[in-house]
Amino acid sequence: MSDEEKKVIEYFKRRIANKKTAYTSIYFKIEKLDALINLIDKQSKEIEELKEERKKYPIAMNDEQYKKVIELAQKDIKEELDRQINTKIEECENKIKKIRSKKLINEPEDTIVITRYAHYISILQSLLEKE
Question: How far is CA 90 from each of CA 64, 93, 122, 127, rounded to the nearest angstrom?
């Protein structure tokens, strides 16, 4: 707040506080009223700017709210990982089915590939169980 603004506020405080001139306190000088109105406008704009600035930053949370947010985020991450793991398991199962459904089976190579996919499936399922 500038010195001029402080003077205006002090002027009004003195005029209102002085009981002898209380009846004249409503007859303020026009320039003093203009200065007061300008000060009010300036303060209102600053308040609005601060409100807008505050919206840019997250609201402070207490410990319980913070724990809840972390808990929900962990739950979402786990669900997404489970979905991805289940998708991979389905892909491996489909590849095994595709190999088994071929008319010409190259026995040694297909057995190795099927065993590999079965191993992938067991690893993925163990990941699901650990979570």
Answer: 39, 5, 12, 15
Q: What is the pTM assigned to this prediction?
A: 0.47
Distance (Å, rounded) from C-alpha 130 to C-alpha 124? Answer: 10
Average pLDDT of the residues of the chain: 77
Dist CA 65 CA 111 (whole Å): 53
State pLDDT tens for residues 102-124. Answer: 766 667 777 788 888 888 888 88
- Max distance between CA atoms of the chain, in angstroms, equals 113
Concatenate the DSSP letters of all residues of 27-95 into one string.
S--HHHHHHHHHHHHHHHHHHHHHHHHHHTSPPP--HHHHHHHHHHHHHHHHHHHHHHHHHHHHHHHHH
Q: What angle do CA 104, 108, 85 make, to 5 degrees?
A: 90
